[in-house]
Amino acid sequence: MRPPEFWKADVGGRDAALALRALLTPLSWVYASTVAHRLRTTSPRNAPVPVVCIGNFTVGGAGKTPISRAIRAKLGAGAHTLSRGYGGRIEGPLRVTPDMDAREVGDEPLLHARDGAAWISRDRHAGAMAAAQAGARAIIMDDGFQNPALSKDLSIIAVDPGFGIGNGQVFPSGPLRERLADGLARADAIVMLHAAPADQPPPPDWLAHFAKPILHARLEPSGIAPERNLVAFAGLARPEKFFDTLAAMGAKVSEAVPFGDHHLYSEADLGVLAQMAEERDAMLITTEKDAARLSPEWRARVAILPVTARFDDEAALDALLAPIRSRMIPPHG
User: Fold this and answer.
1) I need a surface site. Which of 90, 151, 247, 323 has the fewest CB within 10 A?
2) Predicted TM-score (pTM) of this structure
């Protein structure tokens, strides 16, 4: 799914956007009320180990996965990741290994599995219990901030500063998953994940009264782009972030082809991309997340650019994680 244009903050004055937003507003009221009721009436169950949730306020990507991976690296091998397995068929709980198929377990869990122990489970509490029984000393949830089934010890919200909260409306008239005030009240910290190095802008108006930590991080390539013409493609919520990263590196991008988030590439899709690259004497390049949805044969034909979330203030992140680290019980023996 690509976010509609009227979700953006800068289209408020367009007549068509205003009309469509007005038509969808009653559905947004129902959606917001349903989410609020579920959060209010569900009794979260505790896991036997601390749980860190990396969530967001909006539908679509805001950088949860790279932030989850960076925090996992901070907490060490005793931290297991847990996600729903969006886009996969298996309900779990299941421990994911890097050789599994994204159509079965989703793409993001495959990235987490390269870092260490990773689990999928649509029932988040059941997944947390399975991870704990397998030796997890902390659990990092990639998404699930609006899922009340599992109690969270620390909730960190990923924000894409270029998109923010869009038009500030709840789905479907806007990108918010719940009323902003409700989400801000439960959040313990915000991470503004910038696409490229830049001066830190002042906090947006909607964060003016947020008194908890606001951290800044950058998406940095952890590899290099081939020094030849490239046809870039990405199936992300905001694929332009990948294209901007390539541009900032000085890569020679002949064509940039966006797809919807979690797009499952067909042979026809890849054939068109390969033909495009051949016509431009170029090489295909994509993200780690997209590569997880390719067959091994196609993966061998495509350059992959990994990215890492680098925090501007590592000490502030360490301070935020200190209570979690203090509760990570050392393994026996």
Assistant:
1) 323
2) 0.93
